[in-house]
Amino acid sequence: MFAVCGTSTFNRVRICVNVFVTVKQTPDLNVTPRLGDNHRVVREGVELVMDQADEYGVEEGLQLAEKTGGKVTVVSMGPEKANDAIRKALSMGAESGVLITDPGLAGSDALGTARALAAALKGRDWDIVICGTESYDGSTGMVPAQLAELLGVPHLSFAKKLEVEGTKVTVQRQTADGFVTIETETPVVVTVTGGLNEPRYPTLKGIMGAKSKTVDTVDLAALGLDAGQVGEGGSLVKVDGVAPAPERQAGEVITDEGQSGERVAAMLVELKVL
Amino acid sequence: MAEIWVHAEEDGGTIAPITLEILTKARSLGVEVVAVALGSAANHAEKLGEFGAARVLADAREDYTQFFALPAVDAFVALAQERKPLAILFGGTYDGRDIACRVAARLGVGMAAFASDITVEGESVKVEVPIWGGALIATKSFAAAGPHIVTFRAKAFAAEAAGSGAPQVEQVTPELSEGSKRVRILDRSVEESTGPKLEEAMVVVTGGRGMGGPENFPMLEELAGLLGGAVGATRAVVDAGWMPYSMQVGQTGKTVKPNVYIAAGVSGAMQHTVGMKGSKNIISINKDEEAPIFKLSDLGIVGDVHKVIPQITAAVKAKKG
Ligand SMILES: Cc1cc2nc3c(=O)[nH]c(=O)nc-3n(C[C@H](O)[C@H](O)[C@H](O)COP(=O)(O)OP(=O)(O)OC[C@H]3O[C@@H](n4cnc5c(N)ncnc54)[C@H](O)[C@@H]3O)c2cc1C
Ligand SMILES: Nc1ncnc2c1ncn2[C@@H]1O[C@H](COP(=O)(O)O)[C@@H](O)[C@H]1O
Question: Is the pTM of this model over 0.90?
C-alpha cells in the first residue's frame, strides 16, 4: 500500500508516507455552545473553527509527510461551511482536501460519520489516517476507532508520540499511569493527543497558496452510500431529551488579605482532614 | 431474564474499580449479570462474583495481553453474535473505549459513550449521558436491536460488594483471527508517583495554568503531602508539558471525588469541572474574582496562588504541630 518515491540509490529507497487527516469543524472554544430544539448543536451565528484536536493531527501529518516526501490530504464531513476548516489545513500546508457534504448526512451519529469517512477514503492512496482524540462538541471520541474498524485496519489511540519508519508505525499510547508502547504496520489509523506537537500558524504565503489547491466535494451518491445508513434516519442512538445537570451551590468568596491560610486550615480541621 | 455483560478490566493485578462500579449498578437492573474476563482478568472470577456477576465468561489466553485491543474485539463480537446479550457495558477507560467502539462498529449496533446512569425496562435500555462538559444531561435510547454498547464515566456509581456466592465460571475460547494479532504491545512505562493515587486520594490539590510554571508545583506537592493527598493538574498544564498526563483531572483525564479538592490557578472550564464537581468540599484560589471555578466552590479565595498556597501550608503545619 506504500509508494516508493524519490530516486533510489542502490537499495536505499525512500518510502513516502501519505497521510489523510480528518478534520471537524466545531464551535470556537471560547463560546458557550447551545443546543437547538432538535438537540443538535446550534451552528448558526456561532464562530466555527477547525477543532483544536485536529490542529495537532494536521501538524503531525505535515511533519510526517515532510520527513518522508509524502502528501497530506484533509477530509471533513459537514455542511458546506466545513470547507473553511479544510482551507485552514490547506493554508497550514496540506496538499488537497475532500469535503463530504450532503443534506442526508445531517444528524449522523458516530457510526454514520465513520461510514461516510470510510467511504470517502476508499480507493484513495493513504498509509496513515490521523484523527483527533475527541472533538469539542461531540466529545465522544468514537469516530476514529469506528473508522479504523470499517477500514479494517488497526487503531493506535491516544498517541503522545508517533514514529514511522518505512511501514513500521510505533506509538507511545497514554495510559492512566504512564504510557504503553505499541507497534504495527501501515495502513493504520492513529489518534493524537494534544501536546504531542506545536501546531504551526498558517503563513501569508500558505494562505495565498491554499487558494489554488483543490478540494474534492463528494455527496452520498458519489460515496455509494445508502441514505438509511447515515444521517438522522440511520442513527442507532436517539436523544430523547436534554436537561440541565444539577448545579452545586456557590459558597463564600473571600479576598486574600493574609488571612486565607488560617481560614483554610480551620476549614480542614472542621472537615477532620487535620 | 435478559442478559447484560460487563467487560472485566484488570488494573494493577486486580479488577479495576470501574468494573466493580459497573457490576454494582448492573446487579440492580433486574437482569442476569455476566462478566466477560479476558486475559489476566480471568484470574479474578471470585471478585467479579462478589460485586454482582452471576456468571463469568473466562478466557485466560495470553493473546489478550500480548496484542493490543483487537483480540478482545474479536472475542466480544464472536461471543455476542452467538449469545445475543441485551447490552454490553464497558468502563470509559482507554482500553474500554477502544474495544467498545470497534465492537459496536463491527456488529453495526448503537453505542452511547460516557454514560452516568442506565435503566432497563424489559428490552428497552435508556442511558443518561452528561454532555457539554457535564452542564447538560442527555437521555438516550437505542433505535435498533442490540446488543447495545455503553461506556461509563468513572465513579458514576459507588462500588459495593453484594455478599453473593461464587459465580458460575464458564471457560470460553472464541476464535481470534490472525489479523487481531497485528498490534504488538512492546512495553509499559509507569510514571512513578509518591502518596495515594489521584483517583483514590481523599484530598486533591490541583494546579492550573495560574501556577505559572512547573517550578511552582513542588509547592502543591508539599501541601498535598501534609494533607495525605495527591496532586492533580488541568489540561492546560499537561499539554504545556509541565506535568505528566496521568495527573490530568477532567473530561479527558481522571474523575475524582475527594473529601477536599483544592484548585489553585484553575479557571474552572466545563471540561475540567466535570471531573471534580462531585468532590465533597471545594476550595479554590484564583486572582480573578470572576473565575467560573468560584461558582462551584464552598470556599473561594480571590488572591495570588504564590502567596496563598504558602500561607495555607504554614497554617497547616502549625495546626499539625
Ligand atoms: C475536548 C476537550 C476536552 C478537555 N478535557 C479537559 C480535561 O480533562 N481537563 C482539563 O482540565 N481541561 C480540559 N479541557 C480544557 C479546558 O477547556 C480548559 O482549557 C482548561 O481546563 C484550562 O486550564 P486552566 O484552568 O489551568 O487554565 P486557564 O483557563 O488559562 O486558567 C488559568 C487561571 O489561573 C488564574 N491565575 C493566573 N495567575 C494566577 C495567580 N498568580 N494566582 C491565582 N490565579 C491565577 C487565571 O485567573 C485563570 O482563571 C478540554 C478541552 C476540550 C476541548
Ligand atoms: N464530521 C467529521 N469530519 C471529519 N472528521 C471527524 C468528524 N467527526 C469526527 N471526526 C474526527 O474524529 C475525531 C474525534 O471526534 P469525535 O469522535 O466526534 O469525538 C475528531 O477530532 C476528527 O479528527
Answer: yes
